[in-house]
């Protein structure tokens, strides 16, 4: 089973960026947590980019993966191109956010991506990613048992 963990703009600064909102664990720390949480038969690939086109390319690469865990950062609220890329691939995508976007500014309340995702997990800090991993595993098992 192959799962892509895809992080968008500014998430390379995790740990340093607005720690009151996003916590003090780095992207490297998040990667280590997810590797620990993943069962042995799950291969995780990690990609972070600040560029919309690179995020689209990464989604295309994951065309028939078992799933994608995707924090699109601010592109969540603006990008039709990312929405189209999610809709174009076979892999189920879980939209994740570290913060609870609905408890923040109103421009963060809308997601251009959510409607073409399997589901959305928002507000649980870095645990949002491990919850998304669990959701993808359950989804995969339900379809293959
Ligand atoms: C975020 C929420 C977005 O609104 C914001 O632009 C981010 C991070 C989150 O993980 O909480 O960059 O996706």
Layout of strands and helices, then pairs:
Layout: E1 2-7, H1 19-22, H2 27-37, E2 43-48, H3 52-61, E3 67-71, H4 80-88, E4 93-97, E5 119-122, H5 127-144
Parallel strand pairs: 1-2, 1-3, 3-4, 4-5
Helix pairs in contact: 3-4
The protein binds 1,3,4-trihydroxy-5-OXO-cyclohexanecarboxylic acid.
Residues 10, 71, 73-74, 76, 97-99, 101, 108 line the site of 1,3,4-trihydroxy-5-OXO-cyclohexanecarboxylic acid.
Structure commentary:
The protein has helices at 19-22, 27-37, 52-61, 80-88, 127-144; strands at 2-7, 43-48, 67-71, 93-97, 119-122. The protein is α/β, with parallel strands linked by helices. The protein has one domain: Rossmann fold (3-Layer(aba) Sandwich), CATH 3.40.50. The protein has a 5-stranded parallel β-sheet with strand order 2-1-3-4-5, with helices on both faces. Helix 4 (80-88) links the parallel strand 3 and strand 4. Helix 3 packs parallel to helix 4 (80-88). The longest helix is centred in the C-terminal third of the chain and has 18 residues, at 127-144. The chain is globular. It starts with a strand and ends with a helix. The mean pLDDT is 97. 1,3,4-trihydroxy-5-OXO-cyclohexanecarboxylic acid binds at residues 10, 71, 73-74, 76, 97-99, 101, 108.
Largest sheet: 5 strands, parallel
Can you count the beta strands?
Answer: 5
CATH class: Alpha Beta
> What is the CATH architecture descriptor?
3-Layer(aba) Sandwich
If strands are numbered along the chain, what order do they take across the biggest sheet?
A: 2-1-3-4-5
Structure at a glance:
This protein has 145 residues and is of the alpha/beta class. The chain is 36% helix and 18% strand.
């Amino acid at each position: 089973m192959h799962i892509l963990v895809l992080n968008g703009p500014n998430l390379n600064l995790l740990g340093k960026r607005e720690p009151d909102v996003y916590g003090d664990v780095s992207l490297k720390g998040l990667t280590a947590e997810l590797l620990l949480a993943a069962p042995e038969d799950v291969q995780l690939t990690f990609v972070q980019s600040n560029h919309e086109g690179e995020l689209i390319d990464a989604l295309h690469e994951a065309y028939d993966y078992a799933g994608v865990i995707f924090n699109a950062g601010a592109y969540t609220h603006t990008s039709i191109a990312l929405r189209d890329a999610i809709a174009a691939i076979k892999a189920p995508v879980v939209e994740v956010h570290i913060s609870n976007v609905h408890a923040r500014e109103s421009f963060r309340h809308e997601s251009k991506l959510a409607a073409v995702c399997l589901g959305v997990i928002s507000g649980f800090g870095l645990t949002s990613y491990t919850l998304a991993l669990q959701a993808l595993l359950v989804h995969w098992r339900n379809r293959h048992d």
